[in-house]
Write a structure and sequence with these properties.
The chain is α+β, with helices and mostly antiparallel strands. It contains 6 helices and 15 strands. It is globular and about 60 Å long. The structure holds 2-oxoglutaric acid and fe (ii) ion (FE2). Belongs to the alkB family.
């Protein structure tokens, strides 16, 4: 990608706003990142029930960040994201690295209130499908729309169009940016399953363009089966800006 003016070309789907950039980094940049991630001191890993993570940039509190400098191997990526997207008013100062085994995922959730509402996720390793679902507080609106109560026709259509479940296929080396309604009105999550279906993914064409499946999978009718098998770990870098930075713990 040659600069922020090109970013609009990478918008996918109709929900505002999801941006998918295939091959944001090269395979050798991916290998170098993985080397740095797996070369970090083992204490840097925090094990959760369904994944491991490394926290870089400092400790995020509800009200802000107790900062720590990002290492140069991460700033080379975060600066590129800032420059090319033009979507962050300040430098990205926080990176969460998640590692998922093939059968691990992340529950549908919304990111915390301390972050500026633009998220950039760099994917490494195994592909995966991320699902965006309407926030429970919008369920009522959708249920009303479905039973055609109380919401006008145009609103109904718009409501459904905006808030159906949306799948995004995340290939290695790609960058996903999400903001606006995708950030404020949706939960995002990844199923904890070794097989992910990408049928109907909003970026299917862009994501599969340069990708050859090792063994095309066939369904019972002999047609192509749009699933990916997660045979290796997936590692993602969730890059965000915490605008409120506290230099001094006692000023919290
Ligand atoms: O691993 C991913 O792609 C998603 C991570 C995520 O949603 C988060 O860290 O908040
Ligand atoms: Fe998240």
């Amino acid at each position: 990608m040659e600069g922020k003016e090109k970013l609009n070309d990478y918008g996918v789907g109709s929900l505002p706003t999801l941006i998918y950039i295939p091959d944001f980094i090269t395979e050798s940049q991916q290998a170098l990142l993985l080397k740095n991630i797996y070369g970090a001191p083992s204490l840097k890993w925090k094990s959760l029930k369904n994944r491991r993570l490394q926290n870089w940039g400092g400790v995020v509190h509800e009200k802000g960040l107790l900062p720590q400098d990002l290492p140069p191997w991460l700033t080379s990526i975060t600066q590129k994201i800032c420059e090319q997207s033009g979507l962050f008013p300040l430098e990205i100062n926080h990176v969460l690295i998640n590692e998922y085994l093939p059968n691990q995922g992340i529950m549908p959730h919304q990111d915390g209130p301390a972050y500026f509402p633009v998220v950039a996720i760099l994917s490494l390793g195994s592909p995966a499908v991320m699902e965006f679902t309407p926030h429970p507080r919008l369920r009522l609106c959708i249920d009303n729309a479905k039973s055609n109560n109380s919401v006008g026709e145009i609103e109904t259509e718009k409501c459904l169009e905006d808030h159906n479940q949306i799948s995004v296929l995340l290939m290695p080396c790609s960058l996903l940016i999400f903001k606006d309604k995708a950030y404020t009105d949706c939960l995002h999550g990844i199923k904890d399953s070794e097989v992910h279906q990408y049928d109907g993914a909003i970026n299917e064409i862009e994501a599969m363009k340069n990708y050859v499946l090792d063994q095309p999978l066939l369904n019972s009718e002999g047609g192509d089966c749009k699933i990916i098998k997660r045979t290796t770990n997936r590692v993602s870098l969730t890059c965000r800006l915490v605008p409120n930075v506290h230099k001094n713990l006692f000023k919290f």
